[in-house]
Design brief:
Blueprint lengths: L33 E5 L2 E5 L5 H7 L7 E3 L5 H4 L5 H8 L3 E5 L1 H10 L1 H4 L13 E5 L4 E3 L2 E10 L2 E8 L2 E4 L7 H4 L7 E5 L12 H11 L3 E5 L7 H5 L6 E3 L11
Parallel strand pairs: 2-3, 3-4, 4-5, 9-10, 10-11, 11-12
Antiparallel strand pairs: 1-2, 6-7, 7-8, 8-9
């Protein structure tokens, strides 16, 4: 886990609450991102503003592909840092996302995707954009998109093997839940104890976990409302709270 926090990060600028000033390292939360490793490959889900620092802190010396859940700033504005992986690998970086997210990328990072007009003297990321329309193969394994509401915006969750990642969502619709059967690990949005129009609350996430019955579940995209330790003390044993730097082994 490179990041497990809400769009403002934790601590937040100008906030001196007990969570933002906590001495527990688990209460320091970068914007959300995760690296999924299998078969000697590393797939990065989302490129938040702290990408460079998080990659260095967690020893992520190589990334082979990038998946984007959606194009909000806290999930894409570290995309320029991918250029370092271009340099290390000597290859262009495949980026997978919805058509809408790719459109935003083309407008926000035109210098990274327009190969024909790119200035060869500019140090820039070199991206190959791929539209997600259905399940797709990546390094010999199938990835299944999960279509999720984020308020009035549609975002993507992802499943590979017995692992699923569903951040930034206000529900997991019944039409998508069959894609999340028989999971070992479910990472799910859980912003705070109280309801929010574009994110799941703790209670809503627990209800979905009870319905889907993964062996293990982890809350992500947390704000600064509750200390990490206090949240975990209220949860069932198979439900934990993500923290930056956490490594989870599963049967992918």
């Amino acid at each position: 886990m490179l990041g497990s926090g809400t769009s403002a990060g934790v601590p937040m600028i100008g906030c001196h609450c007990r969570v933002c000033t906590s001495s527990d390292a688990r209460d320091r939360r970068n914007r959300c991102s995760v690296v999924v490793s299998y078969g000697g490959r590393r797939v990065l889900i989302d490129t938040p503003p702290e990408l460079r620092l998080a990659a260095i802190a967690n020893g992520v010396d190589m990334v082979d592909a990038v998946l984007l859940t959606h194009a909000h700033a806290d999930h894409i504005f570290g995309l320029d840092d991918v250029r370092r992986y271009n340099t290390l690998s000597g290859k262009d970086m495949p980026v997978w996302a919805s058509a809408k997210a790719l459109s935003v990328i083309r407008h926000a990072f035109p210098y990274a995707v327009d190969q024909a007009t790119a200035d060869p003297l500019v140090y820039r990321p070199k991206l190959i954009l791929n539209e997600i329309t259905d399940a797709f193969q990546l390094f010999g394994r199938p990835w299944t998109p999960i279509y999720l509401p984020h308020g009035n915006v549609q975002v993507l969750g992802f499943r590979i093997g017995d692992f699923a990642y569903c951040t930034d969502c206000s529900d997991i619709p019944s039409s998508e839940r069959h894609k999340l059967a028989d999971l070992d690990v479910l990472i799910i949005d859980a912003l705070r104890p109280t309801p929010h129009p574009t994110h799941l609350s703790f209670a809503q996430s627990l209800a979905i976990i009870a319905d889907l019955k993964p062996k293990r579940a982890f809350f992500t995209h947390l704000t600064h409302d509750v200390l990490h330790e206090e949240i975990e003390n209220t949860l069932p044993p198979h439900v934990r709270v993500l923290h930056d730097g956490l490594r989870i082994r599963t049967g992918i």
